[in-house]
Amino acid sequence: xxxxxxxxxxxxxxxxxxxxxxxxxxxxxxxxxxxxxxxxxxxxxxxxxxxxxxxxxxxxxxxxxxxxxxxxxxxxxxxxxxxxxxxxxxxxxxxxxxxxxxxxxxxxxxxxxxxxxxxxxxxxxxxxxxxxxxxxxxxxxxxxxxxxxxxxxxxxxxxxxxxxxxxxxxxxxxxxxxxxxxxxxxxxxxxxxxxxxxxxxxxxxxxxxx
Length: 210
Description:
The protein has five helices and twelve strands. The protein is α/β, with parallel strands linked by helices. A nine-stranded mixed sheet has the order 2-1-3-4-12-11-10-7-8.
């Protein structure tokens, strides 16, 4: 297993790198398309605005190679913005197209009487508890969130977990083949987060076709 981590120049990668090291893995940063060939597993940690992050991916030439990586069903773990960019668009950056891997768009919380951003620990409800990602989990694990936007219009077959905040029950994690992505931050979620990352990193990469 060879672990790559997308470095688009706008996110704080240190906490994700430290979490991977706790699990016995040393990730290498990816800043060029040709570097993807060196890896079997890919993590896209997120921090920053939707539009700025997409601009960085296009500038680095990584947007289309990421689509190809996911289309080839190679292991991918997206976190926060690395999750939101998988959708088609976001209210945060009107006119900017996302990677459009999963149908749906990203909107801002609108419930009255809640604090924005949604920050802190919250429980999730697992919709696909038998998947590899959720091995050794209870049905309602807690994770750490920091976000003001969340996806809507996500097809049910891709929703892996949901979370309730205010009046809105939103999609907190998605799964499609070897793609797994979360709105919450596993690297800040103590034991539960390490368990989730560990499940991803224990997955075998797809076999090479003969």
